[in-house]
Write a structure and sequence with these properties.
This is Outer membrane lipoprotein BamD-like domain-containing protein. The chain contains seven helices and two strands, in the order ααααααββα. With about 200 residues, it is mainly α. The protein folds into two domains: about 10-115, no CATH class; about 155-204, no CATH class. Strands 1-2 form a two-stranded antiparallel sheet. The longest helix has about 35 residues, at about 55-85.
């Protein structure tokens, strides 16, 4: 009887193991047979020493490494985008997304550098303001210079009130009914219509 009882217990244990293995295999298949991270983690949580536990851990490591590589690629792309834009906002966006990323120190340094630079918009506004402030002074200087030039201009030998011309003695009077006299002073011209006889009488 004792031997029979031991055999029965062994059979019962064997049947129990077979049942567990079937449940193990069924759950392994249900969780995707190790092809997705979520299913693997669920399987290992229920069967940490199960029939497929070793394979599950190997597959999980592969999937995690793939994720790390993808994260690295995404981070590199995010960093390249930040550098291309090259603004304080773009570097801050990178730091927000990857606070412990590979380029955090460089991003912080570039933000500091950009903050130290003068803002082009502010500089332009200041230049425009300075130009507006200088305009009245420039006009005053221009008016003063013009007045000074006029005060030093030599008077012309011709005056509009004169009705005749006084050509230089060493210059012969022109032969024609029309006479155009040019004064010795720059930019002072006169045009007078006189007869040849009148000009000759004035010249003598």
């Amino acid at each position: 009887m004792a031997a029979l009882g031991a055999a029965e217990l062994e059979e019962q244990a064997k049947a129990r193991r077979a049942e567990l293995e079937r449940a193990d295999t069924a759950y392994w298949k249900e969780m995707g047979e190790g092809n997705n991270e979520r299913g693997i983690r669920f399987y290992l949580e229920r069967y940490p020493d199960g029939r497929y536990a070793e394979v599950a851990r190997e597959n999980l490591e592969i999937l995690e490494q793939r994720k790390r590589n993808q994260t690295s690629a995404n981070e590199s792309q995010a960093w390249n985008d930040a550098v291309r834009t090259n603004t304080e906002q773009s570097y801050q966006a990178y730091l927000t997304r990857y606070p412990t990323g590979s380029y955090t120190n460089e991003a912080a340094a570039r933000i500091k550098e950009l903050r130290a630079r003068p803002d082009p918009a502010i500089e332009q506004a200041r230049a425009e303001e300075d130009a507006l402030n200088m305009a009245p002074l420039a006009r005053r200087l221009s008016n003063s210079t013009s007045a000074e030039c006029l005060s030093h201009r030599k008077p012309s030998r011709f005056h509009p009130s004169r009705l005749h011309c006084n050509p230089p003695k060493d210059v012969a009077a022109p032969r024609g009914p029309l006479l155009e006299c040019v004064s010795l002073a720059p930019a002072a011209r006169c045009a007078a219509t006189r007869t040849r006889q009148a000009c000759r009488s004035r010249a003598t």
